[in-house]
Amino acid sequence: MTAVLPPVDLRRIVKLAEFEGLARAAMEPPAYDYVAGGAWDELSIAEAEAAWRRRRLRPRVLVDVDRIDPSTTMAGSRASLPIGIAPMAACGLAHPEAETAVARAAAVAGIPFALSTMSSHSIEDVAAAAPDGVRWFQLYAQRDPSRSRGFVERAEAAGCTAILVTVDLPVLGYRERDIRNGFDLSVPLGNFGDIGPDHGSHRGSADSGYDIVAGEIARGLVWDDVGAIRSWTRLPVFLKGILTAEDARLAVDHGVQGIVVSNHGARQLDRTVAPADALEEVVGAVAGRLEVWADGGVRRGLDVLTALALGARGVLVGRPILYALATAGEAGVARALDILHQETITAMALLGSPTVADVTRAHVAG
Ligand SMILES: Cc1cc2nc3c(=O)[nH]c(=O)nc-3n(C[C@H](O)[C@H](O)[C@H](O)COP(=O)(O)O)c2cc1C
User: The whole model's pTM is what?
Assistant: First the structure.
């Protein structure tokens, strides 16, 4: 899966963006394209990053920043930074240890890790690899509700502490790179051992990952189904993929514990409003009645603090983690999380915010 390249001196990597080129050199081109790509013209990929970077900070001075505490809770789970690792399908495309390596690095760093329904390794294997880490499960609601329920029950039994229901993928986005490459995610998917002939190893077009998306994912999922999903578990339920105040209010009405302001890394609908730009509208609409996170284009500690200032409780980071995994496995992910830690505590000190609770709307202009 990965090319043999000289080892990378991880200490010389100082920002997440540097992992991308290294990952590109290490990965098969169609796998890299699957990770890096988006939908249609991919306009929303660059815009997601730009929307964080456009915001300007308003630092306060002469605040005692001798001790910085960047820890918080997300969905009631402890987090050493206001950051979780976004759910990403088929991490085995980046490294053979896949989600187990990411989960181990995350556990050591105290960062929650969201496991995708479409993970390479199973819910149970990832739990066994990092039993002490905070793990969440991301649900793609299945056409057969009993299958969805089975996933949720397995996740809860395996020690996951929140369920993130992804609501922006009734169908797959128009992903031109994958179409051109003939890429159909025909790689082992750990949680689907009961589908197809090859128990957990989905190879061949008859049961590719894209076929599972097309065939098994519930296109008919509607707001009325949210209550059923909530009834299956005692865990907090978040809806991932909200971009409007209207849907945020519906999420409140349907009793979920939180939402993730997200456009799925620009892999679904292109030309959406950037998550960073949608965040404040959503925060205003929910008025503190549920927890709000954001993802898409978060690359620097400065982005994290901008999100907090705009009212998010935390953020998720996606592609850079897969790039770090492709670069150097668990050690690469550990380095990426360490960089985020250093950047975040430095920015908190310079912003005059020794704890995450000290970051307020007044810390960002506009
Ligand atoms: C390769 C890849 C696979 C993804 N798979 C999933 C998935 O299985 N479930 C999901 O809810 N989101 C998935 N996402 C979206 C991420 O959870 C997240 O919303 C997005 O990557 C955040 O943007 P960023 O990559 O710019 O940080 C995936 C993203 C990537 C890049």
Answer: 0.96
